[in-house]
Amino acid sequence: MVEAVMLLVPFILLVFLLLEAFRREVFQVVLTHITCTEVRARALGERKEEIDLETQRFLTSALGSALGHDIKENSHKEFQRVTEPAELRWLQVGNRPGGLSEIWLRYEQFIGFDSKEKRKHHQEITKRCLFPFS
Amino acid sequence: MFVSLFLAIITPLAFAVVWLGDLYYRELDWQRTQIVLDNAAIRLGHSDLKIARQLEKDRTDLIALHQKYHKSLSCSVLPATAIVCSELSKTLKASIRLLNLRSSLRAQTGWSIGTVGAKKDLNKNGPFLYLNRVSKIALKQKRCGVCGEVQGLMLTDLNQTKSRLFEGGERNLGASVSLVGGGKKEWNYRLWAR
Fold this sequence. Notes:
heterodimer; B: alpha+beta; four-stranded antiparallel β-sheet; two-stranded antiparallel sheet; 2 helices; 6 strands; 60% helix
Protein backbone atom coordinates (compact mmCIF):
# COMPACT_ATOMS: atom_id res chain seq x y z
CA MET A 1 0.00 0.00 0.00
CA VAL A 2 2.74 2.45 1.05
CA GLU A 3 4.77 1.59 -2.03
CA ALA A 4 1.76 2.13 -4.25
CA VAL A 5 1.11 5.58 -2.73
CA MET A 6 4.79 6.49 -2.95
CA LEU A 7 4.72 5.57 -6.59
CA LEU A 8 1.40 7.20 -7.34
CA VAL A 9 2.15 10.63 -5.81
CA PRO A 10 5.17 11.44 -7.99
CA PHE A 11 3.33 9.94 -10.92
CA ILE A 12 0.36 12.30 -10.45
CA LEU A 13 2.73 15.24 -9.93
CA LEU A 14 4.54 14.32 -13.12
CA VAL A 15 1.26 14.14 -15.04
CA PHE A 16 0.30 17.61 -13.80
CA LEU A 17 3.72 18.97 -14.65
CA LEU A 18 3.48 17.56 -18.16
CA LEU A 19 -0.02 18.95 -18.53
CA GLU A 20 1.25 22.39 -17.48
CA ALA A 21 4.14 22.24 -19.91
CA PHE A 22 1.83 21.07 -22.68
CA ARG A 23 -0.74 23.78 -21.92
CA ARG A 24 1.94 26.46 -21.93
CA GLU A 25 3.26 25.33 -25.29
CA VAL A 26 -0.24 25.41 -26.79
CA PHE A 27 -0.75 28.95 -25.45
CA GLN A 28 2.63 29.96 -26.88
CA VAL A 29 1.66 28.83 -30.37
CA VAL A 30 -1.79 30.39 -30.15
CA LEU A 31 -0.35 33.71 -28.94
CA THR A 32 2.35 33.68 -31.63
CA HIS A 33 -0.34 33.25 -34.24
CA ILE A 34 -2.50 36.03 -32.80
CA THR A 35 0.34 38.55 -32.46
CA CYS A 36 1.65 37.85 -35.96
CA THR A 37 -1.81 38.07 -37.52
CA GLU A 38 -2.51 41.27 -35.65
CA VAL A 39 0.76 43.05 -36.37
CA ARG A 40 0.42 42.33 -40.07
CA ALA A 41 -3.20 43.44 -40.24
CA ARG A 42 -2.56 46.62 -38.25
CA ALA A 43 0.64 47.54 -40.07
CA LEU A 44 -1.33 47.26 -43.31
CA GLY A 45 -4.07 49.51 -42.02
CA GLU A 46 -6.89 47.09 -41.29
CA ARG A 47 -9.63 48.21 -38.89
CA LYS A 48 -9.16 47.28 -35.22
CA GLU A 49 -12.70 45.90 -34.85
CA GLU A 50 -12.15 43.49 -37.73
CA ILE A 51 -8.85 42.32 -36.27
CA ASP A 52 -10.48 41.72 -32.87
CA LEU A 53 -13.29 39.76 -34.50
CA GLU A 54 -10.79 37.66 -36.42
CA THR A 55 -8.81 37.01 -33.22
CA GLN A 56 -11.96 36.00 -31.39
CA ARG A 57 -12.91 33.63 -34.18
CA PHE A 58 -9.46 32.07 -34.18
CA LEU A 59 -9.40 31.64 -30.39
CA THR A 60 -12.85 30.06 -30.39
CA SER A 61 -11.96 27.63 -33.15
CA ALA A 62 -8.58 26.76 -31.61
CA LEU A 63 -9.45 26.50 -27.91
CA GLY A 64 -13.23 26.28 -27.72
CA SER A 65 -15.63 29.07 -26.84
CA ALA A 66 -15.12 29.07 -23.05
CA LEU A 67 -11.31 28.94 -22.99
CA GLY A 68 -11.06 31.15 -26.07
CA HIS A 69 -13.16 33.83 -24.37
CA ASP A 70 -11.15 33.45 -21.16
CA ILE A 71 -7.85 33.94 -22.99
CA LYS A 72 -9.17 37.03 -24.74
CA GLU A 73 -10.32 38.51 -21.42
CA ASN A 74 -7.03 37.82 -19.65
CA SER A 75 -4.64 39.07 -22.29
CA HIS A 76 -3.47 42.58 -23.08
CA LYS A 77 -2.32 43.71 -26.49
CA GLU A 78 -0.07 46.50 -27.57
CA PHE A 79 0.79 47.64 -31.06
CA GLN A 80 3.52 49.98 -32.15
CA ARG A 81 3.56 51.35 -35.66
CA VAL A 82 7.01 51.68 -37.14
CA THR A 83 6.16 52.43 -40.75
CA GLU A 84 3.12 54.27 -42.04
CA PRO A 85 0.98 52.31 -44.53
CA ALA A 86 1.70 54.91 -47.21
CA GLU A 87 5.42 54.19 -46.95
CA LEU A 88 5.16 50.60 -47.98
CA ARG A 89 8.03 50.84 -50.42
CA TRP A 90 10.22 50.07 -47.40
CA LEU A 91 8.25 47.01 -46.52
CA GLN A 92 10.57 44.18 -47.34
CA VAL A 93 10.98 40.97 -45.42
CA GLY A 94 14.01 41.16 -43.15
CA ASN A 95 14.40 44.87 -43.75
CA ARG A 96 12.60 47.68 -41.96
CA PRO A 97 9.60 46.58 -39.89
CA GLY A 98 6.10 47.90 -40.47
CA GLY A 99 5.00 47.24 -36.91
CA LEU A 100 5.64 45.52 -33.66
CA SER A 101 2.90 43.78 -31.72
CA GLU A 102 3.04 42.42 -28.22
CA ILE A 103 0.57 40.28 -26.31
CA TRP A 104 0.68 39.44 -22.63
CA LEU A 105 -1.33 36.63 -21.12
CA ARG A 106 -1.85 35.63 -17.51
CA TYR A 107 -3.44 32.26 -16.91
CA GLU A 108 -4.19 30.16 -13.85
CA GLN A 109 -2.12 27.05 -13.46
CA PHE A 110 -3.10 23.68 -12.01
CA ILE A 111 -0.38 23.50 -9.38
CA GLY A 112 0.98 26.27 -7.21
CA PHE A 113 4.56 26.86 -6.12
CA ASP A 114 6.44 29.22 -3.82
CA SER A 115 7.91 32.26 -5.45
CA LYS A 116 9.42 35.28 -3.65
CA GLU A 117 7.64 34.89 -0.29
CA LYS A 118 4.24 34.16 -1.77
CA ARG A 119 2.53 31.24 -3.40
CA LYS A 120 2.16 31.60 -7.13
CA HIS A 121 -0.87 30.12 -8.87
CA HIS A 122 -0.52 31.68 -12.26
CA GLN A 123 1.80 31.89 -15.24
CA GLU A 124 2.54 34.76 -17.59
CA ILE A 125 3.50 34.64 -21.23
CA THR A 126 4.65 37.58 -23.36
CA LYS A 127 4.85 37.22 -27.12
CA ARG A 128 6.17 39.74 -29.62
CA CYS A 129 5.96 39.68 -33.37
CA LEU A 130 7.56 41.98 -35.91
CA PHE A 131 6.04 42.63 -39.29
CA PRO A 132 7.35 41.88 -41.88
CA PHE A 133 8.01 38.51 -40.34
CA SER A 134 11.60 37.36 -40.45
CA MET B 1 3.77 -2.49 -12.95
CA PHE B 2 6.77 -0.35 -13.85
CA VAL B 3 6.35 -1.18 -17.50
CA SER B 4 2.67 -0.27 -17.51
CA LEU B 5 3.41 2.97 -15.61
CA PHE B 6 6.22 3.79 -18.01
CA LEU B 7 3.91 3.17 -20.96
CA ALA B 8 1.14 5.18 -19.31
CA ILE B 9 3.47 8.19 -19.20
CA ILE B 10 5.38 7.73 -22.42
CA THR B 11 2.43 7.04 -24.73
CA PRO B 12 0.47 10.28 -24.11
CA LEU B 13 3.75 12.17 -23.93
CA ALA B 14 4.76 10.90 -27.36
CA PHE B 15 1.36 11.83 -28.76
CA ALA B 16 1.57 15.27 -27.15
CA VAL B 17 5.04 15.89 -28.56
CA VAL B 18 3.94 14.85 -32.06
CA TRP B 19 0.80 16.99 -31.81
CA LEU B 20 2.80 20.00 -30.61
CA GLY B 21 5.36 19.47 -33.36
CA ASP B 22 2.56 19.48 -35.91
CA LEU B 23 1.15 22.66 -34.35
CA TYR B 24 4.53 24.42 -34.60
CA TYR B 25 5.01 23.16 -38.13
CA ARG B 26 1.61 24.50 -39.18
CA GLU B 27 2.31 27.86 -37.56
CA LEU B 28 5.65 28.16 -39.38
CA ASP B 29 4.04 27.09 -42.64
CA TRP B 30 1.38 29.75 -42.15
CA GLN B 31 4.09 32.40 -41.70
CA ARG B 32 6.12 31.11 -44.65
CA THR B 33 3.09 31.17 -46.96
CA GLN B 34 2.17 34.66 -45.79
CA ILE B 35 5.74 35.84 -46.46
CA VAL B 36 5.62 34.34 -49.96
CA LEU B 37 2.31 36.09 -50.69
CA ASP B 38 3.50 39.42 -49.26
CA ASN B 39 6.77 39.33 -51.17
CA ALA B 40 5.01 38.47 -54.43
CA ALA B 41 2.57 41.33 -53.75
CA ILE B 42 5.46 43.73 -53.10
CA ARG B 43 7.18 42.77 -56.37
CA LEU B 44 3.89 43.14 -58.23
CA GLY B 45 3.39 46.53 -56.62
CA HIS B 46 6.85 47.64 -57.77
CA SER B 47 6.09 46.49 -61.30
CA ASP B 48 2.72 48.29 -61.38
CA LEU B 49 4.28 51.41 -59.91
CA LYS B 50 6.76 51.51 -62.79
CA ILE B 51 3.83 51.44 -65.25
CA ALA B 52 2.06 54.31 -63.52
CA ARG B 53 5.23 56.42 -63.43
CA GLN B 54 6.00 55.66 -67.07
CA LEU B 55 2.48 56.69 -68.09
CA GLU B 56 2.91 59.94 -66.20
CA LYS B 57 6.28 60.58 -67.87
CA ASP B 58 4.86 59.79 -71.32
CA ARG B 59 2.01 62.20 -70.72
CA THR B 60 4.42 64.97 -69.72
CA ASP B 61 6.46 64.35 -72.90
CA LEU B 62 3.30 64.36 -74.98
CA ILE B 63 2.10 67.63 -73.50
CA ALA B 64 5.48 69.20 -74.31
CA LEU B 65 5.22 67.94 -77.87
CA HIS B 66 1.64 69.11 -78.03
CA GLN B 67 2.62 72.68 -77.22
CA LYS B 68 5.09 72.57 -80.09
CA TYR B 69 2.36 71.15 -82.30
CA HIS B 70 0.09 74.09 -81.47
CA LYS B 71 2.89 76.54 -82.26
CA SER B 72 3.50 74.85 -85.61
CA LEU B 73 -0.23 75.03 -86.38
CA SER B 74 -0.35 78.73 -85.65
CA CYS B 75 2.74 79.49 -87.76
CA SER B 76 1.38 77.42 -90.65
CA VAL B 77 -1.27 80.15 -91.16
CA LEU B 78 1.41 82.71 -92.00
CA PRO B 79 2.22 82.63 -95.74
CA ALA B 80 5.97 82.98 -95.19
CA THR B 81 6.26 79.88 -92.97
CA ALA B 82 3.20 77.96 -94.13
CA ILE B 83 4.98 75.15 -95.99
CA VAL B 84 7.63 74.45 -93.39
CA CYS B 85 5.23 74.73 -90.45
CA SER B 86 2.56 72.57 -91.99
CA GLU B 87 5.16 69.85 -92.63
CA LEU B 88 6.39 70.26 -89.06
CA SER B 89 2.86 70.00 -87.67
CA LYS B 90 2.28 66.81 -89.66
CA THR B 91 5.48 65.31 -88.30
CA LEU B 92 4.64 66.37 -84.75
CA LYS B 93 1.14 64.95 -85.08
CA ALA B 94 2.55 61.62 -86.25
CA SER B 95 5.11 61.63 -83.41
CA ILE B 96 2.41 62.40 -80.83
CA ARG B 97 0.25 59.53 -82.04
CA LEU B 98 3.20 57.16 -82.17
CA LEU B 99 4.28 58.10 -78.66
CA ASN B 100 0.72 57.69 -77.44
CA LEU B 101 0.50 54.23 -79.01
CA ARG B 102 3.87 53.25 -77.60
CA SER B 103 2.77 54.43 -74.14
CA SER B 104 -0.37 52.28 -74.34
CA LEU B 105 1.51 49.21 -75.58
CA ARG B 106 4.21 49.65 -72.96
CA ALA B 107 1.63 49.90 -70.17
CA GLN B 108 -0.28 46.81 -71.28
CA THR B 109 2.93 44.83 -71.80
CA GLY B 110 4.22 45.94 -68.38
CA TRP B 111 0.96 44.84 -66.82
CA SER B 112 1.16 41.41 -68.48
CA ILE B 113 4.82 41.03 -67.47
CA GLY B 114 3.84 41.83 -63.87
CA THR B 115 1.10 39.19 -64.00
CA VAL B 116 3.43 36.55 -65.43
CA GLY B 117 6.16 37.40 -62.88
CA ALA B 118 3.78 37.20 -59.94
CA LYS B 119 2.34 33.89 -61.16
CA LYS B 120 5.87 32.54 -61.52
CA ASP B 121 6.66 33.70 -57.97
CA LEU B 122 3.59 31.95 -56.64
CA ASN B 123 4.03 28.74 -58.63
CA LYS B 124 7.61 28.49 -57.43
CA ASN B 125 6.37 28.31 -53.86
CA GLY B 126 3.39 26.02 -54.05
CA PRO B 127 0.63 24.75 -56.30
CA PHE B 128 -2.21 26.29 -54.30
CA LEU B 129 -1.28 29.94 -54.58
CA TYR B 130 -3.31 32.05 -56.99
CA LEU B 131 -3.38 35.53 -58.44
CA ASN B 132 -6.52 37.41 -59.24
CA ARG B 133 -6.29 40.61 -61.26
CA VAL B 134 -7.63 42.15 -64.44
CA SER B 135 -5.95 40.87 -67.60
CA LYS B 136 -5.78 44.35 -69.19
CA ILE B 137 -5.83 47.75 -67.56
CA ALA B 138 -8.36 50.28 -68.81
CA LEU B 139 -6.63 53.53 -69.70
CA LYS B 140 -8.38 56.83 -70.27
CA GLN B 141 -7.29 58.78 -73.31
CA LYS B 142 -6.66 62.44 -72.53
CA ARG B 143 -7.36 64.83 -75.39
CA CYS B 144 -6.67 68.50 -76.00
CA GLY B 145 -9.74 70.66 -75.41
CA VAL B 146 -8.84 72.89 -78.37
CA CYS B 147 -7.69 70.59 -81.19
CA GLY B 148 -8.86 67.21 -79.89
CA GLU B 149 -5.44 65.65 -80.40
CA VAL B 150 -4.25 62.95 -77.99
CA GLN B 151 -2.42 64.05 -74.85
CA GLY B 152 -1.41 60.77 -73.27
CA LEU B 153 -3.06 58.06 -71.26
CA MET B 154 -4.22 58.02 -67.67
CA LEU B 155 -5.03 55.39 -65.11
CA THR B 156 -8.49 56.40 -64.00
CA ASP B 157 -10.15 53.82 -61.81
CA LEU B 158 -7.49 52.75 -59.31
CA ASN B 159 -9.69 49.90 -58.08
CA GLN B 160 -8.85 48.02 -61.25
CA THR B 161 -5.19 47.97 -60.20
CA LYS B 162 -6.01 45.95 -57.09
CA SER B 163 -4.44 42.51 -57.40
CA ARG B 164 -5.26 39.76 -54.98
CA LEU B 165 -2.81 36.98 -54.19
CA PHE B 166 -4.27 34.16 -52.17
CA GLU B 167 -3.99 30.59 -51.11
CA GLY B 168 -6.77 28.23 -52.08
CA GLY B 169 -7.71 26.45 -48.89
CA GLU B 170 -9.28 26.76 -45.49
CA ARG B 171 -6.59 29.00 -44.03
CA ASN B 172 -7.94 31.98 -45.91
CA LEU B 173 -4.47 33.42 -46.46
CA GLY B 174 -4.03 36.30 -48.86
CA ALA B 175 -2.56 39.68 -49.63
CA SER B 176 -3.61 42.45 -51.96
CA VAL B 177 -1.72 45.22 -53.61
CA SER B 178 -2.95 48.29 -55.42
CA LEU B 179 -1.69 51.60 -56.72
CA VAL B 180 -2.37 54.73 -54.74
CA GLY B 181 -1.77 58.40 -55.42
CA GLY B 182 -1.97 60.03 -58.80
CA GLY B 183 -3.08 63.58 -59.54
CA LYS B 184 -1.05 65.91 -57.36
CA LYS B 185 0.13 63.08 -55.09
CA GLU B 186 3.14 60.98 -55.89
CA TRP B 187 2.39 57.50 -57.20
CA ASN B 188 2.96 54.63 -54.83
CA TYR B 189 1.62 51.18 -54.14
CA ARG B 190 0.22 49.76 -50.99
CA LEU B 191 -0.35 46.37 -49.53
CA TRP B 192 -3.66 45.31 -48.04
CA ALA B 193 -3.99 42.66 -45.36
CA ARG B 194 -6.53 40.55 -47.28
